[in-house]
Amino acid sequence: MGKKYGVFLSVTALISIASVVIICISMGTTGWVYATAASVSGLTYGDSDVNHGLFTGSLTRQLVQTATNYDLYITCVWGSNACAWSCLSTASERTAEVESLLAGETPSFACSVSTRALTSTGSTISRADNGTSTSDFLNAGAWLSNVIFMTLLLAAAAISAGLSVVNSVWSPSESYLNVLGIYIANAVTVGLDVIVLIIWGVHYGVRTQTNVAIRDTIVGEFTSETSLGYSYWLLLTPPFLHAINIGLLYLRDTLINSEPPETKIDIEDIADGTLVLF
């Protein structure tokens, strides 16, 4: 019975694998947020372009005719529950920059074009208060929660794929490894995906939509216009895929239960010791 209508299990395995690929692309790409930053003074040659994912991003600055590209890295100060995107070369320099911004200072822009060169930037600090507040930064708790739920989402989708493969070949006796386990894994994946979409969507509406949280916008030298990118919108796909899986599993169960029960013939023991065969 475990492998009856096994094609349904094979299809759910393929769909779950496709979901895993989509989630990995979403996690690994830098298209969660796109932004255009315009100079408040209007003295730049062109607007800056910013895009970032969960961990890294890029900044294209055009203060002169030739645009300059920089790598961005998420940098958090957990004690202040704040994160920002910094393009400085080392982790310690990036942390120091974010702490300076949180203190209301205006660190000079001192990023290297190539962040592979781990040399000192020699940045200087202006003690002029830039009037920053934590609302100009990413919320560290929201960012960390999003990363945790994204990791759980990937794990749940992978478990769904693994269980579907196992059940298409074998018939595990344990309830959490058989078709019931596939149901649960798919349902959990849908729930986790919705949580990720809500966390990032709400945080974008509250914080990122008005400030992309780079040095230039935090100190007030630039204003930004942002939009959610493809890496975020890709996560709309897995819930539909796993909902299809649940539907296929339900259809398989319906087909199995609708079949007439197998005829069982009971052979009675009619042997009588008083009978003698000649």
TrEMBL record:
The gene is LOC107223726. It comes from Neodiprion lecontei. It is found in: Membrane. It is a multi-pass membrane protein. InterPro entries: Clarin. The keyword Transmembrane helix applies. Keywords: Membrane, Transmembrane, Transmembrane helix. It comes from the Eukaryota. This is Uncharacterized protein LOC107223726. GO terms for biological process: sensory perception of sound.
